[in-house]
Hints:
Blueprint: H1 2-20, H2 31-52
Amino acid sequence: MILFLAGVVTALLIGIGCRLLDLPLPAPPRWQGALLVVAMTVGFLAAGQLMAG
């Protein structure tokens, strides 16, 4: 759970930093790409849980 929260906080900080520095957001511009990123993240987390025990 700590790792999940650390990931969410890191993502929020990157988003805030990109907004404040007027940098392009490092994410896909279309919703299909965003869903792909979510799917990869969920798969990564699920694989980690399966491998842990």
